Amino acid sequence: MKISRDWLQTFFEQELPPVQELADALTFHAFEIESVEGEVLDVKVTANRGHDCLSHLGIAKELSAILPIPLKPSVVGKVDFTGTDSLQIVIDDPTLCRRYIGAHIRGVKVGPSPAWLRERLESIGQKSINNVVDAANFVMFNIGQPLHAFDRNTLEARDEKVEIRVRNAQVGEKIVTLDDKEQSLTENMLMIVDGHSGALLGVAGVKGGKESGVSDTTTDLILESANFDGPSLRKTSRALKFRTDATQRFEQVISPELAAHGMRAFIELVLEVAGGELVGVVDEYPGAADMQTVSVSLAHINRALGLALSAEEVSTVFSRLGFTRQDGGEPSIFAVQVPRERLDVAIPEDLVEEVGRVIGYEKVPAIELPVASAVVSNENVARYATIREYLVSQGFSEVFTSVFAEASERAVSNKIGGDKPFLRSTLAAGLQDALERNVRNKDLLGIAQVKIFEIGTVWRGGEEKVEVAIAVEKIKKQKTQDEYQKELDEFVSRLSSTTRSIPSSPLPDVRYEPFSKYPFISRDIALWVSEGTSADEVLEVIRAHAGELLVRSATFDEFTKEGRTSYAFRLVFQSFDRTLLDEDANTRMESIYAAVKEKGWEVR
Hints:
single chain; elongated; alpha+beta; four-stranded antiparallel beta sheet; 18 helices
C-alpha cells in the first residue's frame, strides 16, 4: 500500500523523521518496504495485519509505537447516529453482513473535489472522480473502512422511505456495474438491493451498480459503511474478476466496529466538501462484538525472547500499542484488552511477538539450535529423503513435472489452463517428456546417459498417493533389450528395498549456471597423438583456440594402437545472444584444426 509521509504527518503534532528513517523503522519492526519514491512509501503489509494496517492510520499507529511518537487525539466521532424514518436496512444473513450502517444526506452538490482532497489522493496514485466518491476513497485510505454512496433518487420510495436490503443474488440475475460491464451473478454472491423494487444496487464490497451511481445531478445520498464476510467476498471477486481496494480490505477481515468510525468520518467529509444536511443514520448491527482480553506472564515473555525485561518495560510496550492493561492483577501477569481492530492478537504468544518486535528483534540474543534428535518425526519424509539420497548416489537427477494432465480420473474445478484440466494419475507421462527433453540437451549438459527420477503426488482410484518413478535413457548398441530390461528390473528391486541403513554418499561441490535459450551446435573431432600425450593436454589446446562460443568440451572415446593414442572429443558451441550458424562453428573448428596440426597431431 502506498503511504504518504505528508498524510501520515496529519496524525502527529511532532515532526516525523525523514521518509527513509520511517522506512527503516517499519522494515525492522513491522513490514517490508517495496520502494520509496519521493515522500511516498510502498509498504508491503503482511496478511495477518491487513485488517488494521491497510490505511494511513494503521501505519501511523505502528510508527507511534515504534519510534515512539504520540498520536494526536482522535478528531473523528462528532456525528451522532440520530435515527431516521426515511431509511430502512434489512440484512438477510448476519453471517455474511455483520453490520450495515446507512446514512441519508440531502441537498448535496456533486462536483470537483477541493485541491487538498485531490492532492491527498493523487499523492498515492489515486485518480480524483468527484467530491462524494473522493470522500469515500479518502476515508478508506485514511482509516481503512471501505465506503460507498448511492443516489437516493434512483431507489423506490414508499411513504417517503427507501429500503436497503443485503441478500444473496438470485439465479439468472445480472447487474451492470460502474465500469459499464454486465455481470452474470450466482447464488453465493452477496448483493446490495433496493428492498422495494428489487433492483440491484451493487455487488457488496466489490463494485457498485451503474444505475444507482452518484452523478453530477445527484442531490440526495445514501451512504454505506458495512462489514461484509471476507471469504465470501474473495470468492465473488475472483469469479467476477474484480479486485478493488475495498475488496482487498474486506478480504483481510476487518472489525465491524470500524464501520461506525468510517461512517462518522464519511458524513463529516461529505458535508464539508459537498454541502447538504444529515437527515439521519440507521445502524443495523445484529451481533456487537466484545473487546477481547489476552493474558501473558512476564516470565513467559522473557523465556520466549531470551531477555530479562522488567514489568515496567513490558507495560510501556503495551501502552504504546494501545493495549489497555486491566487493573487489580498480579504485577507479573499482563491481562490486556486488545483494540477491536487487532484481530491478529488472540493468544499469549501473540503478545510475546508484539513485545519482541516493538523493542527490536536485534535485542533478542542469538542462540545455537539444539542438536537434532535421531528420532524420525515423519516417516514418509524420512523415507523419501532416503530414496532421493540413494538415487542421487547412483547418478540420477531429480525432476519435477506438472501435476496436471490432459486426461485422467479427477477433473480440476478451478483449472489453470485449458489443455490440462485433470490431475495426473501417473508420473510416467511427465517423466517421459522430461527424459526426451534432457536427451536432446545431454551434449550441452555434458552427460553420457540421462537418468532421472521424480517423487510426486498422483490421484488414482479415488486416492491421493505419493509415488517414485525413474526413467533411464537407453544407450544404443550397449545392451540387448532383454539385458537392458533385466538390469532395470534389478535396480527397481534394490530401490524398493531401500531403507535408512543405506550408506549416504557426499554430493559433489557443484555450481549451477543457466544455459542459453538459443540452440547449440555440436562438433566432434578425433585425432592421433604420440603415446604418452594426455587427453587434458589436447583439450587445453582445443579450448585455447575454440573461442568464447565453446561452452562444453569432453572426451568420449580413447584407444592406443601401434605407439599412438587416438582421442575423440565432443565440442559444444552456443551463444547467449543469438542463434549460431554452421559457419560460426566451422570457423572455430578450422582454428582448432590448424592448432593441433602445429602440434604434430593428426586429425582423423
